[in-house]
Write a structure and sequence with these properties.
Subcellular location: Membrane
Shape: globular
Distance between the termini: 50 Å
Strand content: 35-45%
Keywords: Disulfide bond, EGF-like domain, Membrane, Repeat, Signal, Transmembrane, Transmembrane helix
Membrane topology: Single-pass type I membrane protein
InterPro entries: ConA-like_dom_sf (IPR013320), EGF (IPR000742), FA58C (IPR000421), Fibrinogen-like_C (IPR036056), Fibrinogen_a/b/g_C_dom (IPR002181), Galactose-bd-like_sf (IPR008979), Laminin_G (IPR001791), Neurexin-related_CASP (IPR050372)
GO cellular component, one term: membrane
Largest sheet: 9 strands, antiparallel
Number of helices: 12
Radius of gyration: 38 Å
């Protein structure tokens, strides 16, 4: 059906020129510089007059307009400059209208059309979706800076046939069926409409069995209710699409249904969904109604407001409903007054374009009753603004009705968005005298009516249809001369009118003062009032949340000029919720210093899959990813047969797509199948048909059993040649009346995991089976060390074109010894994207989406061509671009508000070089990931000259040489581990750094000095409203104590915010967040049991936006820690702003052991030990370096070993046996002593060598750590810098 309609749409070549034959009267303009540059000279390629249209130099809002004489379908436009001149338009807006009064902007790609670069070349734009219109208006935005504005145009299209019906809000058309009911399995309904109201039914039909279909306007959006066979219930869920559909302009609708699959298209946006109900057909009784429901209260109806507007070209399954109605066919019954021409109301609006300088001033007409009244309608997205301001003349009404002069006063009407609704305030001379809470938000893009009346010695304020708010006055208030709408002039006159933080930005219409309508046309023509930064005859509101550019389920909200994404609860962060807050694998978690436990991993990063919870088992040799399912216990099976088999489906803690991503990205995966049987066969049948089998991850039947190779009906005992009966390939196939075992491990990755098991031979006497399917277990992350080495400057790897129109993130590691080179590049006709090492210490990220080249650069204080691994992450989306290098401050740049959005590329993606084969990269690149997809550099390198797979060096393998965030550094003959960023020490960053505290002990690490806070406060304040999901806190530490209450850790800011981790009086762990002064602190208790038990406990916390993971708590605020001041371990005194319970814990301090404390990229405990004289570290009280963390681990191990002691009451052997045992023990002891003596000698020699090496290593690392402290950046913890 969709193909059929598209074929109809493009069957005729709708590209004929429409302007060349128009009469002169069809051309209009805002002005003309001379009679020879009149608008009718602006025909493409014509040289009449002065060769085109040119407005007056004084025309501050030039426009050029065409009247096509009838509604036409327009498919393309073309422009040209004025002939043989330096006058042309370089960019413009295109508006269209049916009446020439109410206009709408055509949104071409990102809004504006690219114009000309000289006077003769023709620039043509084919419209992505055609428009049916009579009037077109060109609004020049930019022109030749060395000349002036000149224009010649052509419009292409064809005639348009329209069948129109006009509904007045009380009428409808009924299409009656030939039989009692109509049952259809597929439907196609298409129509176009334009509406005067935000509510109204367009289509309704229902059946007695509960089927219904309703298409309605609700809050200016289109809602489709569709049910097939489900009985009526109190709740109905609509599929909603579109926005701002009450703008009095045409909108197209297409509904396509086949069985329960439905496509709903509104204008250019389509939503696919599956309808409710169990049936496949839509059964409607008697009739379908269009334009409304004729009988309110009819069973099954749920909206009573009829449609008020026009509908054209209404087709129901190929039937032209309006044509039948117009010809008065008996199938159509008309209710109320339906006419067949579209009436055009003159609801002309104006748009306030600027939030700082727009205003409209109108004279206050005299009122015979005294006082004044104002009425108008407005719509906006902004949360607050000034609607009205005027100077008041205050006079007391005397006994004779006279009025005495009084001091002047001002009246301001403002609105401000609150959490649930909008707040309207009336202020007289800075004194708040009236407040109204609307029942809903008014910054929802809908039209809202406001009425203000100061007559009858009272002020009355009315919003929409809500009850009026009235304040009694003791005197009459009159508007003196002028009323300002939407803002105030920037000049000092009038002095009483002052803009608040934001003036009004939105649309207004239907303005009346003292019951006299104000003509906006007269204002535009200079005949009435004054204005600035206004656009007339159109409401320029635009829904920036349609389509929703927030990814991964982020909630979109908007202002007039931008949109914002709330990423709370999504597991993602960033301006568009693009970046996963979770690591992609267990291997990645281990590299950050994490230990075994449950974690959320996001196997495709910023891709569409989302996070999944797994268990990460981090052993010394390998890191296992364990994915559990719903049936891990043994299952006993009896009574199953091939005809009625036992079936068990396994539901995993991850989706099928997530499982496939985990398996694909792992080096090896396996799943144990424990199977025991008695008189229950697997494959032993006369025709070889299997009696039991399992389904793989893709749902395919697999008949090989645990431990054997795919494709063969055998078990592991056959592979090992130890089956009970060698005539069979499985132990169970011997069919013995005793228990047999065919346990094995499935390890063929492409077939994992087991999704279902089927057992079919346990229905005979004494027959039974027991099975247990283990979790999916995988190890290794193939992406982390997937690397390629580039050793020729002209070499590169090429991949398919980068799919990055609206956004992309690129991350990788590199190491090199050369001063510059291009990491990757992708080109388009004009657009491009590139990441490169531009100098030995600078990485640049550059791109162009049509707004001009953008360059972000990060400069390192140390060279980056040091043959060590460095991390780069570049991201570009419709909101901003950012660049991160290692742990250096993040550079980011906001995108222009109304610039081009789409990055259009068409060449291949070049990695390690460029298309020109110049400035290529020499060195290694690994872990290249783009939009969550890891590129296989090794495979591509195998077939590419000048590039080899892998990367040489000790630090280039998958083995974890340096642990707990330690950085591996290549040396000429080996490697060393840089533990600067780690809370651990030792040669491999594995040794606990522990300190014993007493009650008076404390360690304070200072992040920022007060003067640096003052310098950065303005930029930080401006960033908070833009981006609340970029920040994070990541902290980890171990502790051992028997004291409660106790203060473990506090983080405080200069703005009185804090985070505190304490032990409460009962020993339970409490985490306190105080992020906003006007709200109570958030308190979480992850463990209710006492942790003051003398045992070592490991704590790790991570916050992204409002979410505190891993146990997932949601905060009441997503505020950022602004200007972090310090982090304190142990006792805290004299701190204002702390909650009482936190203050008490702080005064008690901490008695016990703290170990391996990490806060973001700072290790304060380690800094205190190595840098006691540093100004950044302050130590109070007794502080003793300890090995309590290691001792606690050893105690734990000892406790476990004691559980293996033999029973005390075991029976004793006779004396002869004891004598033999003693003799044997003496002999063995002598042998062991000899072996141990030799071992101790070798061990002592090795220990002496290791001790010397470790002392040298520790000295080097301590020196590096001290250097790091001296280079400490005051904004390092924030890691953000803003460039406008």
């Amino acid at each position: 059906f969709l193909i059929f309609f598209k074929a109809l749409m493009f069957a005729n070549n709708c590209d004929s020129p429409l302007v060349s034959m128009l009469p002169d009267a069809s051309f209009q303009s805002s002005s003309q510089s001379s009679s020879s540059s009149a608008p009718y000279f602006a025909k493409l390629n014509r040289r009449d007059g002065s060769g085109g249209w040119t407005p007056l130099l004084t025309d501050r809002e030039p426009w050029f307009q065409l009247d096509l004489r009838d509604r036409m379908e327009v498919t393309a436009v073309a422009t040209q400059g004025r002939y043989d001149s330096s006058d042309w338009v370089s960019s413009y807006l295109l508006l269209y209208s049916d009446t020439g009064r109410a206009w709408k902007q055509y949104r071409h790609e990102d809004g504006r059309f690219a114009g000309n670069v000289n006077s003769e070349a023709v620039v043509q734009h084919k419209l992505s979706h055609s428009v049916r219109t009579r009037f077109l208006r060109f609004i020049p935005l930019d022109w030749n800076p060395s000349g002036w504005l000149g224009l010649r145009v052509e419009v292409y299209g064809c005639s348009y046939k329209s069948y129109v019906a006009d509904f007045d809000g009380r009428s409808s058309l009924l299409y009656r069926f030939n039989q009692k009911s109509m049952s259809t399995v597929k439907d196609v309904i298409s129509l176009r409409f334009k509406s005067r109201q935000a509510e109204g039914v367009l289509l309704h039909g229902e059946g007695q069995r509960g089927d219904y279909i309703t298409l309605e306007l609700h809050r200016a959006k289109l809602a489709l209710y569709l049910n097939l066979g489900e009985k009526f219930s109190s709740s109905r869920v609509a599929v909603t699409l579109g926005s701002l559909l009450d703008d009095q302009h045409w909108h197209s609708v297409l509904i396509e249904r086949f069985n329960r699959q439905v496509n709903l298209t509104v204008d250019s946006h389509t939503q696919h969904f599956r309808t409710k109900g169990e049936g496949d057909s839509l059964e409607v009784d008697y009739e379908l109604s269009f334009g409304g429901i004729p009988l309110p209260g009819k069973p099954g109806t749920f909206l009573r407001k009829n449609f008020h507007g026009c509908i054209e070209n209404l087709y129901y399954n190929g039937i032209n409903i309006i044509d039948l109605a117009k010809r008065r066919k008996p199938q159509i019954y008309s209710v109320g007054n339906v006419t067949f021409s579209c009436s055009e109301p003159q609801l002309v609006a104006c748009t306030f374009l600027s939030s700082s300088s727009s205003f409209l001033s109108l004279p206050a007409a005299a009122s015979a009753m005294g006082g004044f009244s104002v009425r108008f309608q407005f719509r906006t997205w902004n949360p607050d603004g000034l609607l009205l301001s005027t100077r008041l003349q205050r006079g007391r009404i005397g006994p004779a009705g006279g009025r005495g002069a009084q001091p002047e006063m001002t009246l301001d009407m403002l609105f401000k968005d609150s959490f649930y609704a909008s707040l309207f305030t009336i202020t007289v001379c800075f004194l708040l005298i009236s407040t109204i809470f609307s029942g809903h938000k008014v910054n929802d893009g809908l039209w809202h009516s406001v009425s203000l009346d100061t007559r009858n010695l009272q002020i009355t304020l009315t919003l929409d249809n809500e009850p009026a708010s009235t304040i009694e006055l003791g005197e009459q208030l009159d508007a003196e001369d002028i009323i300002y709408f939407g803002g105030c002039p920037s000049s000092a006159v009038p002095s009483y009118c002052k803009n608040p933080t934001l003036a009004f930005q939105g649309c207004m219409r239907l303005i009346s003062i003292n019951s006299q309508p104000m003509s906006l046309s007269h204002v535009q023509q200079g005949m009435l009032g004054n204005y600035n930064e206004l656009q007339f005859d159109t409401c320029g509101i635009h829904d920036r949340c349609l389509p929703n550019l927030c990814e991964h389920g982020g909630q979109c909200s908007q202002s007039w000029s931008s949109f914002y994404c709330d990423c709370s609860g999504t597991g993602y962060s960033g301006a568009t919720c693009h970046n996963s807050i979770y690591e992609p694998s267990c291997e990645a978690y281990k590299l950050t210093g994490s230990s075994s436990g449950y974690y959320s991993i996001d196997p495709d990063g910023s891709g569409p899959l989302g996070p999944a919870q797994v268990y990460c088992n981090m052993t010394e040799e390998r890191v296992w990813t364990v994915v559990t399912h719903n049936s891990t216990a043994p299952v006993r099976v009896r009574g199953s047969s091939p005809q009625k088999p036992h079936v068990m489906k396994f539901n995993y803690s991850a989706s099928a797509e997530q499982l496939r991503a985990v398996i694909t990205g792992s080096e090896q995966c396996q799943q144990e199948v424990v199977y025991s049987c008695r008189k229950s066969r697997l494959f032993n049948t006369w025709d070889g048909t299997p009696l039991s089998w399992w389904l793989d991850g893709g749902g395919e039947r697999r008949t090989y059993w645990g431990g054997f190779l795919p494709g063969v009906q055998q078990c592991s005992c056959s592979l090992e040649e130890n089956c009970m009966d060698m005539n069979y390939f499985c132990n169970c196939d011997s069919d013995a009346n005793k228990w047999a075992n065919d346990t094995g491990v499935l390890a063929y990755k492409d077939h994992l995991p087991v999704s279902q098991i089927v057992i079919g031979d346990t229905n005979r006497t004494g027959s039974e089976a027991v099975y247990q399917i283990g979790p999916l277990r995988c190890y290794g992350d193939k992406s982390i060390w997937n690397a390629a080495s580039f050793y020729q400057e002209s070499s590169y790897l090429h991949f398919p074109t980068l799919q990055a129109e609206l956004g992309s993130d690129i991350s990788f590691y590199f190491k090199t010894s050369v001063p510059s080179g291009v990491f990757l590049e992708n080109l388009g006709l004009k657009d491009f994207i590139r990441v490169e090492l531009s100098s030995p210490s600078v990485v640049t990220f550059s791109f162009d989406v049509g707004n001009g080249p953008v360059v972000l650069a990060v400069k390192s204080h140390v060279p980056l061509n040091d043959r060590q691994w460095h991390y780069v992450r570049a991201e570009r989306n419709v909101k901003e671009a950012s660049l991160q290098v290692d742990q250096l401050p993040l550079r980011f740049l906001e995108a222009p508000a109304d610039g081009h959005l789409r990055l259009r590329l068409n060449s291949q993606l070049f990695v390690g070089g460029t298309a020109s084969r110049q400035r290529g990269f020499l060195g290694c690149i690994r872990t290249l990931t783009i939009n969550g997809v890891t590129f296989d550099l090794e495979e591509r390198a195998k077939v590419t000259p000048g590039v080899s797979s892998g990367c040489p060096g000790y630090c280039s393998g998958s083995s974890s040489l340096c642990h707990n965030r330690g950085r591996c550094i290549e040396k000429s003959s080996g490697y060393v581990c840089d533990c600067t960023q780690s809370a651990y020490g030792g040669p491999a960053c594995k040794e606990e750094v522990s300190v014993s505290f007493d009650r008076e002990s404390s360690v304070t690490y200072t992040f920022q000095e007060p003067f640096s806070v003052m310098q950065n406060r303005s930029s930080q304040a401006s960033s908070v409203s833009r981006e609340s999901s970029r920040f994070r806190e990541d902290m980890a530490f171990s502790f051992l104590t028997s004291q409660s209450p106790a203060m473990l850790l506090t983080v405080s800011t200069f703005s009185q915010q804090y985070i505190a981790v304490i032990l409460a009086r009962n020993g339970s762990l409490q985490i306190w967040y105080r992020l906003q002064m006007d709200r109570n602190s958030d308190v979480f208790s992850p463990s209710l049991s006492s942790l003051a038990d003398g045992r070592l406990h490991r704590i790790r916390m991570h916050r992204e936006g409002k979410d505190d993971t891993d146990l997932r708590y949601s905060l009441s605020s997503d505020a950022e820690l602004i200007s972090i001041k310090s982090l304190t371990l142990g006792k805290v005194t004299g701190v204002d702003g702390f909650d009482e319970e936190v203050r008490q814990a702080g005064s008690r301090g901490f008695v016990g052991c703290l170990s391996s404390v990490q806060f973001n990229h700072v290790a304060p405990l380690k800094a205190a030990l190595l840098n006691r004289g540093s100004s950044l570290v302050s130590v109070r009280g007794q502080l003793v370096e300890s090995n309590c963390g290691v001792l606690a681990d050893s105690k734990t191990s000892e406790t476990v070993d004691r559980g293996k002691e033999p029973l005390r009451n075991a029976s004793q052997s006779n004396s002869a046996v004891i004598g033999g045992v003693v003799t044997a023990v003496v002999f063995i002891t002598v042998c062991v002593l000899a072996v141990v003596t030799r071992f101790l000698y070798q061990h002592r020699q090795a220990q002496r060598n290791a001790s010397i090496k470790e002392k040298e290593h520790r000295h080097n690392m301590e020196t590096a750590y001290r250097a790091e402290l001296h280079l400490h950046n005051p904004v390092r913890d924030n890691m953000k810098e803003y460039y406008i």
